[in-house]
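User: Structure tokens for this complex, please. No commentary.
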Amino acid sequence: MAMEVTQVLLNAQSVDSTVRKHAEESLRQFQEQNLSVFLLSLSGELAGEDKPVDSRKLAGLILKNALDAKEQHRKYELVQRWLALDMGVKTQIKACLLQTLSSPVHDAHSTASQVIAKVAAIELPQKQWPELIGSLLSNIHQVPAHVKQATLETLGYLCEEVSPDVVDQDQVNKILTAVVQGMNANEVNNDVRLAATRALYNALGFSHANFSNDMERDYIMRVVCEATLCPDVKIRQAAFECLVSIASTYYEKLAPYIQEIFNITAKAVREDEEPVALQAIELWSSICDEEIDILEEYGGDFTADSDVPCYYFIKQALPALVPMLLETLLKQEEDQDLDEGAWNLAMAGGTCLGLVARTVGDDIVPLVMPFIEENITKPDWRQREAATYAFGSILEGPSPDKLTSIVNVALNFMLTALTNDPNSHVKDTTAWTLGRIFEFLHGSTVETPIITPANCQQIVTVLLQSMNDAPNVAEKACGALYFLVQGYEDIGSTSPITPFFQEIVKSLLHVTDREDAGESRLRTAAYETLNEVVRCSTDETASMVLQLVPIIMTKLHQTLEAEKLSSDGREKQNELQGLLCGCLQVITQKLGASEPAKYAFMQFADQIMNLFLRVFACRSATVHEEAMLAIGAVAHATGPDFAKYMPELYKYLEMGLQNFEEYQVCAVTVGVVGDICRALDDKVLPYCDGIMTQLLKDLSSNQLHRSVKPPIFSCFGDIALAIGENFEKYLMYAMPMLQSAAELSAHTSGADDEMIEYTNLLRNGILEAYSGIFQGFKNSPKTQLLIPYAPHILQFLDSIYMEKDMDDVVMKTAIGVLGDLADTLGSNAGSLIQQSLSCKDFLNECLSSDDHLIKESAEWAKMAITRAISV
Amino acid sequence: MADEITPRRDPIKSSVGNVAAQRRRQHAITVAKERREAVVRTKRLCRVGVGGGGDDQLTYDDDGDGGDMMIDAEQSILEAQTCSAVQDLQLAMLFQGKGAMQKRVAALREVRRLLSRSEFPPIEAAIKAGAIPLLVQCLSFGSPEEQLLEAAWCMTNIAAGKPEETKELLPALPLLIAHLGEKSSLPVAEQCSWAVGNVAGEGEELRNILLSQGALPSLARMMLRNKGSTVRTAAWALSNLIKGPDPKAATELIRVDGVLEAILQHLKKADEELATEVAWVVVYLSALSHVATSMLVKSDLLQILVERLGMSNSLQLLIPVLRSIGNLVAGDAHVASTVLVIGQSITDSILPALIKCLESEHRVMKKVCLLLLQHEFGLVLTRNASMQEAAWVLSNIAAGSVEHKKLVYSSEAVPLLLRLLVTAPFDIRKEVAYVVGNLCVAPSEGSGRPKLIADHLVFLVSKGCLPGFIDLVRSADIEAAKLGLQFIELVLRGMPNGSGPKLVEKADGIDAMERFQFHENEELRCMATKLVDKYFGVDYGVDDE
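Assistant:
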């Protein structure tokens, strides 16, 4: 029944585009006409030892793509399609795949192993193909090394694709045994050993039971550590990758091995080739990650229960670890600052040092200071740069008490170095270190100020000067200025920056116009810094901020006038438009926040909106995220008068809401709809049919990224608040959606942290929708319409209360909904509330919360309930 | 597989552009979230107090909380907390270093939180601890918006306290009023108007102080804004401010440019809460100021009010609307004679609207509605005891033409009224009786007894209304008793073929009247004695035997 597809597959890879397109078309038709035969033919092709390697490879690839897709919706379709295929056909295909594993042709068996894992990912959860793992394991004892290698690769892919809970522990044990045996030093074939080591990396997620067993764990650890000493560099690297993964997955099991791990990594960092040394550093970074998380959970309260105790590995290793990391800092590459993707020993070492500082705090300072003091004045730029880098790396973590006196001394030195050091690499790191100083040791929360009226002017002058330096140095100087002004964000009505405001703005605008501003992301840094300068400015400089409006508008206008552009040019223009829209967003927000400034700003509103609409129009396919955000700010500043822009804006809102692919655009648009609702109030009504239709479509789509769904629910609330009882006509659509989402999010049992976090976001969105709807209907004669939904809502509140895993935000919103329900439904809700299982406990718990926002909502809810019950 | 995994973390030395853009977006989201919460919070707070009794004590200060969860011990803890929160505020005010503003706002927020707690907010404790001068300081010009908001909020809650507590706010009033102006942001102006409203609600003395300090024009201008919650709060504050009894403020208000237009415009809006507050302003304007009343009746206000009466089901809204209509009708002869003309659409639509209100389960609404019916359609039986409101002084009875009465008589109101006369609580029954009684009489010419409308009387008596009136005669309420006696007189005199006395006797009317023989009220004693003598004298019953 299979068909000959060799020639078509070869043609599909032809250099001649006509031939290629014709072949692709035939393949597509074949697939559409008879999927079973098509897949069967491909598997036959893949298995055929007499076939050319190119056609076999492509056959395997098409098979793989017929089983899985990145996009969730498509993936689901493909899974269903495979499950619906004739059992006999599937058996034949799977037989071909398993047979291909024995092929001596590397490309063939390697492709087959990936396809097998994809089939397994579909079938094992359905309890189909039970014999797969058994038959793979029987291959392990085959003599030809390539069969063993292919089998181990397959097991590795399988562990990557399949969820651990669909494989029996018994089979897991057998897989691990086979894998660890393959990694063993006794294994003479390096390809087999490498395949086994990489397979173990994926199998680690399956090994919880085995890691709880001392003997098995000891054995696995011994084999992995041995493999880090293997003569083959790829195996050493793969083995270190296993160790990194073990360090984060099984942190609490590391204690017996930590000494050996240190020895191995220290040796690798000092002596091994870079890819291996980088993994060795990564291992310590991963341990830092774990300990930072654990200590954060302790929250300074060491009696608190944490699932995992902190073993303070970093603290213990500190005396040896820090010198090892400091050594790496001297291994810089010449031009690493110019290459955005650069990653080398020095960069990894500094990053790890930063994590160590965050883990241990003050303890790191005495270990690093001698290195800095010794090297910072050396003639070799590497030493000066390494010393500066070390200093910059440890500024987050240690207490200000520990750092302030040092920083006070260092500050002057740094400012001089930034001006005078002959090496641009050193200047780059110096500017970055200044930025770190301002980020962590300057601001309203810091007790002893680093920046005083005496040195403020000097700092600003030096930073502005450096903005004329090489692009990478100028970029870092912008960064330092960014954190400098950020430290003054809550300063009140008078800012020390005010005297320099005009000069700063002028310099930053000048930077954005530099010919070479495209290098080292300099232009982006300059605009973002300008934004921060505006955001943190005070009313004293409002008039100067206002003067910026026409300047930025002109720049945006110029991008719209540009003549035909190359694709590269278009991309750059697009990026620039984003930056300018972002800048206008920040300015609008700033000026809109004070009444007199807002009044003055309003003269530009029409022109600004006009520009944004043109930005949308010149990007036919999609809506610009930044422009959308800026429009939200304009809506807030304009209030009800924003209605005049709606007729033209509406279609772009709709486009944004339809943008499933760039889900951030969709999310931003949802947020802007909320802004517009608040601005227009009931004047948004004429647009609500369209908006609600689109939002409901978004919610029913399984194509849309899940992160957009909670804001969509909140947006229901915004709409209901704006249009009040006119929301009536949407109730019959919105309520069932909310109800089913509520059911889904009521229970989280078995979910991981990330899922619980998402669930809480979802709950919050749902609850905000309910609040908005209740408050919207309040005092209207139509409140009756909401009564039928009340029991379910109360039940939802009950169940999330019982679940005991809501975060503070959800708690506050939830207790608010209880109050809103009582407030709006009044006596109609009284008895329902009294019947509710846990609402009284929930209320009392909220009333005694430490979080004043929760308390406030709870007190209000209590009042509303009392009234509802007493009527 | 392994080829792709090599994890690359972000270098510690990264470009500021990456973080900054992310933060900026996050900031935009946070801002939107805060604004959403602000909207919800305003909506929630606006409800406070309005829902309660539904009568004219429109105060935001009474949170109506009969909660039982608060016990004395908690109260003393609360007071201690308040005391230390005020001290913290004092320290925060002195602090001049980094983050001073945040410290101040945080301290203020804590005070405000405590003052917003429970049904017995620790106002006294806060005042004793010296909160007022600190709060006044926080209101100084140029302060950040958040600080102004929190301070004004604190004052709002203090103003909601006991009269002597409210008076403590005297030094703050000029600043609160100053922040009502156009230069302030809307939320600040709104919060300040709330505080001013609470102060004005305290009594005449404070009202006069506020007026002399110029609160009225600023609040009036807030009525011209187009933000619902701002107008609502301003309207509420204004209705407290013009409460009188001096009509000057009401007259001043209606003369502010644009206010009349704004009132009409807001009353047309879908927002019922807004319309409710504005309607209360109209209630006071029309009750107090002749100037205002004559300006109001010349606009299409009455039309708008009647439309709202027909459309809305919101009790909160209907009550002030009914009262406004009543005031306008009572206050200006022009209305009854030229606007409520039989055959005009407004006259036709007002009756069904009133009937709808009569059917409501709400006692106050029924009562207001009955008062209105009595007034609009003519009250003839004299009624001299003072009614609840000055607005209802019924000196002018011209409205009650026979045509008006016929209109009521032929409407669906009659069965409803008859039912209420039997089943409703006493105060309602009394008002129903006035209406029913009035349906049977026409205005008298000169000073003589009212003329009877015989067919109305016969019909209503045949439907069994007499026992209801006799019941009133037995009541301790002199006014009601008098009304009952008056109706008995009508029956005795007006029922055809002299059937009146029998009907009265059957309904135990003689017994009811004889009780007045030794009544302390001379007028009633005379009325009853005369009636008994005239209709049930020695000759009575002779014919039958």
